[in-house]
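Annual report, structural modelling task.

Input specification for the adenosine-5'-triphosphate complex:
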Amino acid sequence: MDIGAVWAEKYRPSDFSELKGQEETVKRVKAFIEQRNIPHLMFSGHAGTGKTSLAILMAKKLFGPEWRQNFLELNASDERGIDVVRVKVKDFARTRAISNAPFKIICLDESDSLTKEAQQALRRTMENYTATCRFILINNYSSKIIEPIQSRCAIFRFRPLEEGELGAIVDRIAQNEGLSISGNAKKALIEASEGDCRKLANIMQSCAASSRTITEELIYSAASMAKPKEIKEILVLSMGKGFIEARDKLLNAMLSQGLSGLDVVKQIQKELPGLDIGTAKKMRLIDKCGEIEFRMVEGSDEFVQLEALLSNFAMAED
Ligand SMILES: Nc1ncnc2c1ncn2[C@@H]1O[C@H](COP(=O)(O)OP(=O)(O)OP(=O)(O)O)[C@@H](O)[C@H]1O
Ligand SMILES: [Mg+2]
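The model returned the following structure:
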């Protein structure tokens, strides 16, 4: 097994056909490439869904082996402000594109971390270099980008991958790395990844470091999750007569698996809809989860808050 490489990188799509779940986007991008004429682009969406991968693929298709000379990758949150971005863009844009491409590509990742003022400056930079460069702005939330920039870009939304698509990626990695993974473990892995392929590959790699046979247990421990079944048992117990036992079990699960209070609240919230209780009671408890989560984010003691949450389960009336 290849221990050195980070799997999320190793399995970065090297062709359009390997980029799962973004068919519509890929189709439009391919058309731009065929015309060798692309507008400024914005790739927006959930983490680990292929935004950076597609930008790199485009550069490879457009520029061939010299793609690196024609492709500048900047990270808006690393570059200490828009001035550094401007200087780098200026340096890069000064020389003409190598090979027969009519322009170079500047890929600005985490563009939604720029302040409004920095975005205004970026807008002028984009205008200044339109003759020689195209921008690909990448972000998680396009709504954080000012309107004048949005209107200069063709916007593509990347959606979290679905179960079947994630399953295909799991199979590919497992086969290539010589791993066996049970049906249950695969299901747990897909759920833990939350549609984020990078997270999926990272969890698999960390499981594979301890065993070639990947079990459900391994997945939950690598993903810092309690077993959903265990959480459900604890909730049912606390609603019956076993409050103290439920509390002890919860503390045990947290300590043995190194879970944070927030991890646990999120899992409790996930299990809630499936509990065998009335709708009104469910709603009150879902509301309570929200309140407890807020208190934890504000810095309140997580053990105190989790006990408070469990006591709400114990006291809740139908
Ligand atoms: N659509 C996809 N199909 C197949 N693999 C994918 C896909 N999206 C992401 N991956 C895998 O996840 C890794 C990270 O993907 P990428 O860097 O493209 O994500 P991103 O959308 O740019 O995420 P972020 O917002 O966190 O930067 C890739 O190297 C690849 O292994
Ligand atoms: Mg990215």
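Residues 59 and 67 are 6 Å apart (CA to CA).
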